[in-house]
Amino acid sequence: MKTIKNRSARNILVTPAIAFLSVVLFLTLSEKASAQNGAGIQGVEHVGINVPDLEKGVAFFTDVLGFTPVTQIGPLPLDAGWKQANHVNPGTGAVTIKMFSAGTGANIEIICYADSKGNKVQPNTDDVGATHIAFYTTDIYAAVKYLKAKGVKIIGEPYVTQGGDTVGETWVYFETPWGSKLELVSYPNGKGYEKINPKVILWSPKDAAENTSFSSKNEVENLSINKALVQRHLEIWNEKDQDTRTAAMAKIYAKNIEMVDRSFIATGNDEISKFVEEVQKKNPDFKFMAKSVEGHHNIIRLYWQFGPVSKPATITGMDIFVLENGKVKKMYVFVDDVK
């Protein structure tokens, strides 16, 4: 696959425009192809944890961690065949399942068996099957202080990672009243590996929480937000100072953004920034301007023009932005034929 390092800037000016319907079809197929593996898995929907007492479990996740209980099923009796297939003790009673909204991220499911005959001892940390759930916090030290005030057992002190891929991360374990291990983690300035601009970035509730959810707003609000984002995008492409451009990119572009042209793909802000610089050098008096902006949900369509003051529409084209967590995840570039 070619990148911008193998391609001259002048070629960006000769890509044909394509009808919007075709663009949407292309985007839909592209996104589905990358998102769906053999099982069609889209992401983590919930994490389940067994609790010995439903009321105590609800109280901990609600009153201490601040999660919101949403749904409940049960008590449901379990037949002998289901118990055998799922390795449930024959003498264990009905099951009750309660689901919580846990902020930005997967839901939390607590499961309680009446008159459980299962093992009451929590698995050791090095036991096969031992698990834990990690919760992101903006201030880990304040979070630890809060949990201690609630009588929660903190295991040790927050550990600051000193090197490797997760440098910049601080974490600490804590326990539920029934002994299950949970974790607090924080990395307000990101993790070390992100600085090398990998193609894939780990999902983080930090990024999701910092950005606006477009789907929760009405069309008027969305249009205003879309226009503001496009304006910042155009400012990036007109900015000649590299440091200023890089800082602006970090605010509206995802770290692993892809810019897709008919004949090349640029990945990451560094590659896109170099391409912008190349275009500017070739056209020092040209400026990008918006002609019109449209959008719905997480897709924005921008019609633009590029040229000097005397002929601002020397080059025209259309960009399609695919947003994820309020930032541009993919940018599809279509340039009209030069007449």
TrEMBL record:
InterPro entries: Glyas_Bleomycin-R_OHBP_Dase (IPR029068), Glyas_Fos-R_dOase_dom (IPR004360), MMCE/EMCE_epimerase (IPR051785), NTF2-like_dom_sf (IPR032710), SnoaL-like (IPR037401), VOC_core (IPR037523)
UniProt-listed GO biological process terms: L-methylmalonyl-CoA metabolic process
Source organism superkingdom: Bacteria
Keywords: Metal-binding
One Pfam assignment: Glyoxalase
Protein name, as recorded: Glyoxalase
Lineage of the species this protein comes from: Bacteria, Pseudomonadati, Bacteroidota, Flavobacteriia, Flavobacteriales
Residues covered by the VOC domain: 43-187
Keyword Metal-binding attributed: yes
Molecular function GO labels: metal ion binding; methylmalonyl-CoA epimerase activity
